[in-house]
Amino acid sequence: MAFQLPALPYSYDALEPHVDAQTMTIHHTKHHQTYVTNLNNALEKFPELAGLGIVDINKAVGTDKIPKDIATVVRNNGGGHWNHSFFWKVMGRPTDNNGPSADVKAAIDTAFGSVDEMKTKFNAAAAGRFGSGWAWLGVKADGSLGITSTPNQDNPLQQVADDKLIPILGLDVWEHAYYLKYQNRRPEYIAAFWNVVNWEQVNENFKAATGGAVASL
């Protein structure tokens, strides 16, 4: 079954003033849709992959499960589809930003010392990613939290990732995610992101990740 563009769980203007409606509209209907279309076109040639979900496809990136003929296309567009589907859900209306659960806060405190210190490290990973990419907070194999960044549309589920973890929060730092409002001021965009983090979703992602699972999209 072909992949489809998921509906946003909020209106295009719901994240204002931190993420503008025009950017959200273009980002979702144009950029994300392109990843979905390109992924479906690539997978059409290999019906044996039709039963794989988007998480399994991403976990297979960098392995021989993905035919060489479409390996790069699947890496870029399978990554793009999962990354954006995940990204939309970890954001929400600024008024719904209730902060991390007790369990998530305890894990953050253990790994980083405090929520503020975690944000500082996450912001540095996002700002320091040269060119296009993503910043991630996630659960490592040993159960602790870690922060990493990935280039382009790579993510920490893929075998090509330098640091593998199960993401619980992610931030898109491609210019198309912020340029209309913030232009070259990426750090300002990163700082504004914390106003629209959907901590309820992050908490659910953490519960799944500590059990070794990727939360459903």
Describe the structure.
The chain has 217 residues and is mainly α. It is built from eight helices and three strands. The protein has helices at 21-43, 54-60, 71-89, 102-112, 115-128, 179-182, 186-193, 199-210; strands spanning 133-139, 145-151, 166-172. Strands 2-1-3 form a three-stranded antiparallel sheet, sandwiched between helices. The protein is globular, with a radius of gyration of 17 Å.
| Mean pLDDT metric | 97
CA-atom Rg in angstroms: 17 Å
Low-confidence stretches: none
What is the overall number of helices? 8
- Which structural class best describes the helix and strand composition? mainly alpha
3D shape = globular
Helical content (DSSP H or I, runs of 4+): 40-55%
The span between the termini is: 16 Å
Order of helices and strands: HHHHHEEEHHH
Largest sheet: 3 strands, antiparallel
Residue fraction in strands: 5-15%
What is the strand arrangement across the widest sheet? 2-1-3
Number of strands: 3
